DNA sequence: CACAAGTTTCAATAATTATTGAAACTTTTG
DNA sequence: CAAAAGTTTCAATAATTATTGAAACTTGTG
């Protein structure tokens, strides 16, 4: 059973820790748990696959938390299990291609949030009412405007998901700069 | 002091309540408080300006909460104060143009999150190290890739903020469909 | 200028959400 | 198949975040 073969460059370790910190701090803005964000950051900057033990140690979290969090990352498609031959223990690697990472996140959030929202809005908009009533008209106008917005968002996100590596950035830069 | 002049259509009121509910429920996904989302929804679907009292009553929240939440909405630029002549009380109206609303939200979130993130990433990337060390190389590659992503996001968001009413939707639809 | 009407603040508290840890479960191995 | 190694689950608890409500403050009024 070989120990960490890392030369443990202290400055680098500190920079990584800062990065994990930074990623963890912005978790609150995106409605995900701190552990999830931190574990993702850790796996992103680790060249080698990490075991549950290592995740627990590096992030200072419990086994239970590590187990649930790594599974959630796999659900998002952001992390893969890696079985080493002759090893009982499971190891985990992050998807490293950031375009792919972006696609995963967009796909999941679109499915969980945007699609659900669109369904609910459609249901609300189907409600009949007196078109002479200003309250009713206002309500329907707002609903319609929001639906336009969600539809646009849907188009954009679907487009991004299908996009090729450079196509996307090229188009965007051409479009906005 | 005139009472509510509303004919209070019960079906409509229920639909509005559902909308407020829906909006409030998705607050968790975006890192904002439920009160903030609900109050925004309420003001969006109200044709008339509402007083603090009315906000409190409709959302069933305390005066303190109402006061802080309405202020936060004004900080975002999503709600305006409306002073009625001869009235002491303050009234509040939402920005109703959804493109404008989108711009406000993008502007603020970009400022608070993206810009801050870019600064931190740049700082981390400036860290010197041994280019032969694979750990160091991996770390720098990830940082670089993320910076590319944040830069693209920046371009896109800046573009959206400047966009004209139909220009945006047209372009997007043309681009992605 | 004293009072009334309205607004803001913020420490205390409630509600929510994340995390732990131990027990149950699963899989591998001698 | 018993023990060992590893993983998952979930009720209990900790940590965090949102909300309340009462006191302080501000502004307009007779």
Question: What would your notes on this structure say?
Answer:
The structure is a homodimer of 177-residue chains. Chain A has 177 residues and is mainly α. Chain A folds into two domains: 10-94, Arc Repressor Mutant, subunit A; 98-176. Chain A is 68% helix and 7% strand. Chain A contains seven helices and three strands, in the order H-H-E-H-H-E-E-H-H-H. The first copy, chain A, has helices spanning 10-25, 34-45, 52-59, 63-76, 98-126, 134-162, 165-176; strands spanning 50-51, 79-83, 90-94. Chain A has a three-stranded antiparallel β-sheet. In chain A, a hairpin with a 6-residue loop joins strand 2 (79-83) and strand 3. The longest helix of chain A has 29 residues, at 98-126. The first copy, chain A, is elongated and about 70 Å long. Chain A starts with 9 loop residues before the first helix and ends with a helix. The model of chain A is unreliable at 1-5 (pLDDT under 50). The structure holds a DNA duplex (30 and 30 nucleotides).
Quick tags:
homodimer, mainly alpha, 2 domains, three-stranded antiparallel β-sheet, 7 helices, 68% helix, DNA-binding
- Largest interface, Cβ cutoff 8 Å: A-B, 57 and 57 residues
Straight-line N-to-C gap of chain A: 54 Å
Helical content class of chain A: 55-70%
Architecture (CATH level 2) name of the largest domain in chain A? Orthogonal Bundle
Shape of chain A: elongated
